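Lab notebook, bench 4. The sequencing result for the construct came back, and we need a structural model before the next group meeting so we can plan mutations. Quick request posted to the team channel:

Model the 3D structure of this chain.
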Amino acid sequence: MKILSLAWFGFTFLTLVHAVYLPVTHDYPVDTPPESTPPSTEGDYWNWMHGDNHHGFSCPEGWTMHSIQCLLFVPQNMTWDEAKENCGSKGQGSLAAVYNDLQAHEIYEEMTNAGLHDGQVWVGGSKKSGDPFWSWGDYSLFDGFAEFCRGESAHYENNCLQITFDEHGSGCLDDLQCDVGLPSVCAILLY
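Done. Here's the predicted structure in token form:
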């Protein structure tokens, strides 16, 4: 739990630091509030995060903007290494990291928009043989992970991570042989 709290604190801190350095792109006077302010109720928060409130960031054509990232679902089956290379060939893209349930849900949205309502897709987590620790390949400083199917402390024999969704949209991370062909999800972080 401490690791998750520290990862979330680090994520929030880096996001806020990045926001300080964003260029001002507003056309309204400084003393006038922006047209879109953060919601005051939890129910409106989801819509606000997925709206057009990304302070001048935009996604490349074909990608979809989400909370802190642009996502691209790639339906072609590839090995993990091929999927990683494919995402890297798309500018600043990498295989998607899944730090929390929100990002898992965003990946599921991309899958369902492409007509896939359950199954496995490659994400950017990997580890070296003999190493029990997973890391993300998106070059961020965050090391948090969404829910693992067998728990974080399970013994994982394979070195690549995929996320599995059931027909209800519930997803969890699990290891898989890296040479298995799966669809994938690419991401570009917006910070």
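The chain is about 25% helix and 25% strand.
Will bring this to the meeting.
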